[in-house]
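Quick one: structure for this chain?
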Amino acid sequence: MTRPPALFDLSNTAWRMGTGIATYARNLALAARAAGYGADALVSSDVTVDPADPVLSDVQLFDFRPEPVLPWLVPTLGAIRGVVRTPFGFSPARLPQAGAVLRPPAAAAQLAAFTDFYVGTRMFEAARTGFYVYGRFARIRMPQPPALFHATHPLPVRVAGAPNIVTIHDLVPLRLPYMTLDNKRYFYRLVKRHLADADHIVTVSEYSKRDIMALFGVPETRITNTYQAVTLPQQAVDRSDDEVANDITHLFELDPGGYYLFVGALEPKKNVGRLIDAYAASGSRRPLVIAGGAGWQNKQELERIRDPRFSNYRLVDSTISKFERVRRIEYLPLQQLVTLMRGARALLFPSVFEGFGLPVLEAMSLGTPVMTSNTTSLPEVAGDAALLVDPQDVGAMARAIRRLDNDNDLLGELSRRGRRQATLFSMEAYQQRIAALYGRLLG
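Got it. Here's what it folds into:
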């Protein structure tokens, strides 16, 4: 007997921006397929898609329009739509597969994990407004009920006729309300409702599992930790050391193995300000590269990055050029980010709070030594394969950077341990955990 496919949520902004949630959805879909299920996607589109025209619908799905002349108009119309539509629910339409659009590599890899796509215009946005107003989830009616619906993060929707599972990655908005821009009341109500009504809760670390159980009194039988998996572009992983070194030298103007790397958005919980202070206190002359998006509440971090004390001048081929010891790269394609991570002397990731901490796992899988925090989920992921530091202690971080600067034997040992630790979070191990969970829930 053929099993119905599993269903996972997506937004078409996810494959434009390459979000962590998009990667998580892709890995879930691949795990479901390995367990013998199909994998379909429930898509919230930025624009109205016409399924009656296969070519046009494909074009519309990838149509990312510029900001409107009246920026308040779209959210206002969305709010009205949410208030009007939520009581009646949503019936997404199946998209035909026309293949009209030449998909960017990141989008192609993301979407290849799914078989069919069911789309509703700004469906998730409308459901959020509806939940805010009515306090109830929007009902999604599929043409055929899936085997299950697995929401990759808390969404105020429920798919009719199937078990509904939701992943709660962490409780950062509640644990660190002063470090996020989320509507805390909304997030609290949404999580509490999921914990009461979802058929099962998934999370990504033992720390997050204990945190959810403690704060909300959830019985252990209702929540499963599946961890996450590391999946990096094989083409980037398989490149030779010489090719990586060439790109490091010519694309980034860095010395292979001669710089430190931080990966993540400039937001308070990532602790970039203290990291820069620790780097300065360490006395290291190797550059610190900060790769990630703008984030929020980052004025002080940006000022530290632009601090004149990190500007030097050097003579190259009879030319004097400016050299920034702390350098920010706002966006990189994933393959280039893997190259930058492979070429780093070490990843420095002293985050204050993480539900999992994927950059740590990615670096370890590539053999890049890691310094990270001794708090929240990060010790689970790092094991004995990283230097663990108190993220609030600038002095401790500075001492760790000096050790990385001066001890090549330590680097080699961390690299070996990191590769070994990363195997615990392989895609194969992840697929086994997801298969066991789905099998247990569906019988």
